[in-house]
Design goal:
Strand 3, helix 4 and strand 4 form a beta-alpha-beta unit. The protein is of the alpha/beta class and 249 residues long.
Length: 249
């Protein structure tokens, strides 16, 4: 069931039909500078974005000091023995919250974490320990979406479609899967689309299919990956740009 908390509801409703821009950078990215994520967020606000998604307590805090938009926060922590990297522990979730994010994004897949737990089990723990937070469940499948909703996620998106072993082969968004999620879950959760959206037309298609809002990152804020997509195609698909997109940092 969708939240009845008036504060949370007001924030979530403010996203309706809007664009949330994912403003993320890693230190080994060619565009990295200390203030680049702040500039990304300022540009997103200027353009009319309704929210920001950002990675790491440091970058979340820097953006919140300069840009007054709701923040979806996460902390990417990579380990070689798992594909779970989005806010994988309670400590990471607390750090994201303390940095100023109103919304905490969690990996809510059924993958095994570095700590040998099931990723989606963290949802219940974070809801108990940080009840004031809005929870954004990043999933890769219909089953994981249903599980996240049953355990009280406020937002669900197929962010990790393409980032799990079962979906690693995909190249683009699965609009049929997303439409089914919207039809079946629209009364119980705020469905958002994130992942594999590269044009305004892609984003509008998702709104038409039932998305409450869309999150777009690489196509807007990672020009090196946009350029690499062009090079990949022009080179006859000899150098897969998605390997760079999914690289551990």
């Amino acid at each position: 069931m969708k939240t009845t908390d008036e504060r949370k509801k007001a924030l979530l409703e403010s996203f309706k039909n809007g664009l949330i821009v994912s403003c993320q950078v890693q230190k080994d990215d060619p565009i990295y500078t200390e203030d680049i994520v702040v500039k990304m967020a300022e540009a997103a606000k200027w353009a009319g974005a309704v929210g920001i998604r950002a990675n790491s307590p440091e970058q979340i805090k820097a953006i919140k000091e300069k840009v007054d938009l709701p923040m979806i926060g996460l902390w990417k922590i990579w380990h070689e023995d798992t594909d779970v990297f989005i806010t994988p522990t309670l400590e990471a979730a607390k750090a994201v919250w303390e940095a100023g994010a109103e919304i905490i994004a969690l990996d809510c897949t059924k993958q095994i974490t570095h700590e040998k737990t099931i990723a989606w089990d963290l949802l219940d723990i974070v809801k108990k320990e940080i009840p004031e937070a809005i929870i954004f469940a990043d999933v890769s499948s219909y089953e994981e979406a249903a599980h996240a909703i049953a355990h009280g996620a406020d937002i669900v998106a197929p962010t990790l479609y393409g980032y799990t072993k079962e979906t690693a082969h995909i190249e683009g968004a699965d609009y049929r899967l997303f439409a089914k999620m919207c039809r079946d879950f629209k009364d119980d959760v705020y469905m958002m689309m994130e992942g594999h959206l590269y044009t305004p037309e892609d984003a509008m298609k998702c709104i038409y299919l039932g998305a409450h809002a869309v999150v777009v990152g690489s196509a807007i804020t990672r020009p090196h990956l946009t350029a690499k997509r062009f090079v990949d195609l022009l080179g006859g698909y000899q150098d897969n740009w998605r390997e760079a997109e999914k690289a551990k940092h």
